[in-house]
Amino acid sequence: MKDRLIVALDVDTFEQACSIVDELGDEVLTYKIGLAPFIGYGFKIIDYIKSKNKRFFLDLKFFDIPNTVELAVYQACMLGASMLSLHTIGTKLMIEAAIAGKKRFEDQTGKAGPILLGITILTSMDEDSLESGMFIKKPLGETILGLAKNAYDAGLRGFVASPNEAKLLKDSFDDVVVVTPGIRMGDSKDDQKRSNTPRFAIENKADYIVVGRPIIKAQNPKQAVIECIKNMKGEM
Ligand SMILES: O=c1ccn([C@@H]2O[C@H](COP(=O)(O)O)[C@@H](O)[C@H]2O)c(=O)[nH]1
After folding, report:
1. What's the average model confidence in pLDDT over 85-102?
2. 119-160, pLDDT tens digit by residue?
3. Annotated active-site residue in 52, 54, 64, 230
4. Measured from the CB, is residue 235 less than 6 Å from ligand 1?
5. Rg of the chain over CA atoms, in angstroms?
6. 192 annotated as ligand-binding
7. Is 158 buried (19+), middle (13-18) or exposed (0-12) by CB count in 10 A?
8. How far is residue 163's CA from residue 145's CA, in Å, rounded to a whole number?
9. Ligand 1 centroid vs 107 CA: distance in angstroms?
């Protein structure tokens, strides 16, 4: 299960991020570097994570014109990420460009590029936010499936969704990797609207779970990781 846990390093400083990586030691194999850590101290933390032989998911959620996304994906591949995210609402041409950026990297270097993960609908949104903020008046599952199908047809084989939609995506598309943030074990959901437990995510076919605050803000982050892994195994 350790292989399937990704810890989001959403902290303010390089020193805080290093101290989490040191504290969690062998318990965590993969970290997620999102917008804030990347803007604040991105290259330093990437080097640090690599020096500890850990993998990293670069979660910059690309969403731009196709040419810009092709260039960005190529550069992100060069950094050595094992996973990269982009928004499926970027539509087919943008997704094809992302895949082309990865292919350019692979052709040039002979190395395998990262898994490209399409964000379906952010886990901080629900049907109400989609209707009031994006004027989408459809059942959430339908919107997620529609975006995923478009991305799948463009060649994408990975998705980010909440644990609640992991099974729907795994059952609807062959050979896809599904990564689920929005993981919570206690009562507090923070800003997450679609959340569930590690156990639920795994039982519902998520390949990987992403956990940020429940681990990095815990009084004892290492204990939180141990409990999370036990929960993934159905042991608590
Ligand atoms: O739909 C999405 C996509 C990405 N995320 C990211 O995952 C972590 C979750 O952190 P928590 O503290 O466990 O809520 C965070 O970095 C988000 O940017 C997401 O939550 N939902």
Report:
1. 97
2. 999 999 999 999 999 999 999 999 999 999 999 999 999 999
3. 64
4. no
5. 17
6. yes
7. buried
8. 14
9. 32
Give residue 236's pLDDT.
80
User: What pLDDT is recorded for position 187?
Assistant: 83
CB of 205 sitting under 6 A from ligand 1: no
- With a 6 A CB cut-off, is 165 part of the ligand 1 pocket? no
215 — pLDDT class (breaks 50, 70, 90): very high
The average confidence (pLDDT) of the chain is 97
Tokens of 88: 């499926």
Q: Assign residue 17 the CATH number of its domain.
A: 3.20.20.70
Which residue type sits at 182? Answer: G
Distance CA 159, CA 18 (A): 28
The predicted model scores a pTM of 0.97
Distance CA 21, CA 28 (A): 8
Atom 11 of ligand 1, nearest CA residue: 212
ipTM above 0.90, yes or no: yes
Which of 32, 33, 63, 123 to mutate to test ligand 1, by most ligand atoms within 8 A of the CB atom? 123
User: Domain residues for 171?
Assistant: 2-232
Q: Round to whole Å and give the CA distance between 218 and 221.
A: 5
Domain total for the chain? 1
